[in-house]
């Protein structure tokens, strides 16, 4: 249902948004970086499942459209999701 909200995450962890941001900064990271890394790892895992379509993966990861997911995956991996999937089969 879209990109996860930092406020909702902080609330589920029982802290304020600012406290979460401060803790992430102390750990040398940010909410955006954790979100990107998590999406990338999940994308690789989902692409290993030939039953899941790229469109389904797009929405599972919270992207609004397949083009946005494809651009993000190319940024993370250097190849399109379809090409990555084909390289797994080779």
Overall description:
Helices cover 69% and strands 0% of the residues. The protein contains six helices and no strands. The chain has helices at residues 6-12, 17-26, 31-47, 54-60, 66-77, 81-89. The protein is elongated and about 45 Å long. The model has no long low-confidence stretch (mean pLDDT 93).
What does this entry show, briefly?
With 90 residues, the chain is mainly alpha-helical. Helix content is 69%, strand content 0%. It is elongated, with a radius of gyration of 15 Å.
- On the 0-100 scale, what is the average pLDDT? 93
Large-scale geometry: elongated
Q: In percent, how much strand structure appears in the residues? A: under 5%
Low-confidence stretches: none
Q: Classify the helix fraction into a percent range.
A: 55-70%
Helix/strand-derived category reads mainly alpha
Largest sheet: none
Beginning-to-end CA distance, first to last residue:
33 Å
| SSE series | HHHHHH
- Count of individual beta strands: 0
Number of helices: 6
Radius of gyration: 15 Å
Spell out the key features of this protein.
single chain; 90 residues; mainly alpha; 69% helix
What's the SSE blueprint?
Elements: H1 6-12, H2 17-26, H3 31-47, H4 54-60, H5 66-77, H6 81-89
């Amino acid at each position: 249902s879209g990109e996860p909200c930092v406020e909702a995450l902080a609330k589920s962890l029982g802290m304020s948004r600012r406290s979460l941001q401060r803790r992430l900064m102390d750990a040398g990271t940010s909410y955006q970086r954790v979100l990107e890394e998590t999406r990338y790892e999940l994308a690789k895992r989902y692409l290993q499942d030939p039953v899941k379509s790229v469109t389904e993966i797009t929405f599972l990861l919270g992207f609004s459209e397949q083009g946005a997911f494809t651009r993000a995956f190319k940024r993370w991996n250097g190849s399109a999701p379809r090409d990555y999937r084909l390289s797994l089969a080779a």
